Amino acid sequence: MERTKLVHKYLRSEKKFPHLWCPGCGDGILMGAMIRAIDRLGLDQDNVVVVSGIGCSGRLTVYVDFNTLHTTHGRALSFATGIKLANPKLTVIVVMGDGDATAIGGNHFIHTARRNIDLCAIVINNNVYGMTGGQYSPTTPMGAKSATSAFGNIERPFDICELARGSGASWVARGTVYHVPMLDNLIMSAITKKGFCMLEVAAYCHTTFGRRNKLGKPTDMMRWMRDNSVRTEAFQKLSDEERMGKMEIGVLADFDYPEYCEMYDEVIRKSGGGA
Amino acid sequence: MEKKATERKGGKIKGTSRQQPQRKAKRAAASKSDAGQIVLISGNEACVEGALAAGLGFFAGYPITPATEISEVLSTRLPAVGGKFIQMEDEIASMAAIIGASIAGLKSMTATSGPGFSLMQENIGFGIIAEAPCVVVNVMRGGPSTGLPTNPSQGDVMQARWGRHGDHRIIVLCPNSVEECYTLTIKAFNFSEKYRTPVILLMDEVVAHMREKMTLPPESNIPVINRVKPSVPPEWHIPYENTPTGVPPMAAFGDGYRYHITGLVHDQHGFPTQRQDEIKEFQSRLTNKIEKARKELIMVETEFIDDAKVAVLSYGSTSRSARRAVTMARKGGSKAGIVRLLTLWPFPVRAVQRLSEHVDAIIVPEMNQGQLVGEVERHACGRCSVVPLNRYDGAMIEPEEILHTILEVE
Predict the structure, then answer these.
(1) Closest Cα to residue B115, out of B80, B87, B165, B153?
(2) Are B63 and B94 in contact (CB under 8 A)?
(3) Residue B35 and residue B160 share a domain
(4) Which of A86, A183, A194, A209 is least surrounded by Cβ atoms within 10 Å, i.e. has the fewest?
(5) Is there a cis peptide before residue A18, judged by omega within 30 degrees of 0?
(6) CA-nearest residue of chain B to A69?
(7) Does A150 touch chain B (CB under 8 A)?
(8) Tens digit of pLDDT for each residue in A104-151?
(9) What domains appear along chain A, each with residue ranges and CATH number?
(10) Is there a single domain that holds both residue B216 and residue B308?
(11) B80 and B185 share a domain?
(12) Distance from B18 to chain A by nearest Cα, in Å?
């Protein structure tokens, strides 16, 4: 009960509710986790910016009472880069979907990671384009049916965490909408840690993906997450065979790379523009 | 004279070593305090000077000929005044980043050419609907596609007007000299701040790369407009309020006014709406805030027009050939006149209407297959003949070609 009250404190509840997410969707779970993380860190609402792209995840910015920016499809990280570099004092959180971040926004994703600018990027991965009715995305598993792959998806999926790590992100983690307390903590770390932090949140779209692939109700898809997620410490001890079909969750990469805005301060100093 | 030499050298050394541009930056920064500095610079460099004078705080761009010098010079000049320069992964990201910076409170700009301008259109549309002030410089080159990267063209007149999907108004300014690259850049910033909208500075390759003498006025002489910030307490602030001017005050993220910005059609509070009354009200406000400002936005220059029978209506570098042609024609006894558009959009409707009542013919020379001429025809309404003069072979229109047409039309 207390948790619910806390979340309500940060919602624009008198304005744009009810929300448009389907009953049973994981997007709301992520939104709650993000709010709890911000609250626990004691951040000033006025200094928190939440940026989103297009898709179901993109609507999140309408509901939360921060400085919110709902951008164009795939470009959220580039808008966020402008905001952060213009005013590094702001805490900038970017919420995207899998198609948003890795298909249309794939180029921005790898370059923002490479630049290592201090952003907290959250990618809600439900393996499908949900809002447009369930077309296959860059993270749809091979063989899965979608609105545009009736005979099974023939494209190999991205591992978003590997993509972020390979592109130079400081911090990479994967959580799920089933493991909620862990998700709260991961978001707190992603906000606190300097540099580009990428948190993949495994979610599901029961409406457009679950139904087509006979994966059952939202609760069934959650159960699958519970039964097939392995914490990274345990995952590292598994053999390749045992890893098959399992999902590694937890902090997957944690480096101390130089942060972009701090590096840029040095550029200003060298050019003689320092205060 | 000292300055003259420095600037000329500065232009040639681009990308050779790291230290030279910095020295140049320091020298240029030092010269800023002097009153009325005479310099010899290119149009691209003048654009940089204008942007800095207007208070530029953020630049994001991607290398592209013939606009690259703007990025290069700003990469050293901007941090020297505490501003931020970033080279993004493409033009889509550049446009997004400058809108982000604008929302965070900085005056921001990007510079590109045709292919990059095409990529920016999506987010220019976002800037229009979200009402984020910013300046987009497009140094035109021949197209379509990769086209003619190093040749002049005026092929983006319609892309500048209609590059985005959906109904909207846009402000497009077009300089014809190095000095005007400076003054119109400041104007572009002023218009963008005052009307909360992206403004496009449409330069052509000739204007951008040409070097001319100009006087950089002392900073205090330059009228600079800054966006109006809300003065009411945050709980009273309506971020997209339908104010009498149609331009609501704009708070920056971090100012204490928490609000929502979206590319969706939104209500006065900034939240997405599908209510027909709100949609129409919103769309009309966006249009009307520009329409109401026509008088201020439209800049047209005329010369020898009072007794003119034939008018040459032109813009950008073409207008320089037009001026030469008209003076030659006048010497030969022709009643030729000049109309030069500094503002292409909103289109100077009244000026063309009035002109069409007084002259027998309007000649419209353009370095394209005929873009703005259609608009001239539309507003001349058959009251006079409208004669296109087009060149699209990658070269400038020469004065003799225009003179020939003047004599033919007469």
Answers:
(1) B153
(2) no
(3) yes
(4) A194
(5) yes
(6) B261
(7) no
(8) 999 999 999 999 999 999 999 999 999 999 999 999 999 999 999 999
(9) 2-270 (3.40.50.970)
(10) no
(11) yes
(12) 11
